[in-house]
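Schema walk-through. Below, the input block comes first and the output block second. Nothing else is stored per chain. Lengths vary across the set, and this one has 84 residues.
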Amino acid sequence: MSDYPIVTGKRLIKALLRKKYIEVKRRKGKRGKASHVSIRHPKDKTRVAVVIDTKDDLQKGTLGSIRRQLKLSREGFIEILRDC
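--- output ---
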């Protein structure tokens, strides 16, 4: 499995929340509309910001960066993406 499934930011956030990741109270955006959401694992202090305001699919490089920041294996991350 060399390629990541196609996924949007909103779908990725929903999948991570189902896997017990936590949405940090901090949201970034203009005029009250959030463009990024910070996500972290409950046992780890490392945070990652995920874009949510676009309907475009996330790029493979972006998904790889998110996976590395969350310290997940490639196979584990692909399993999370397939669940969303």
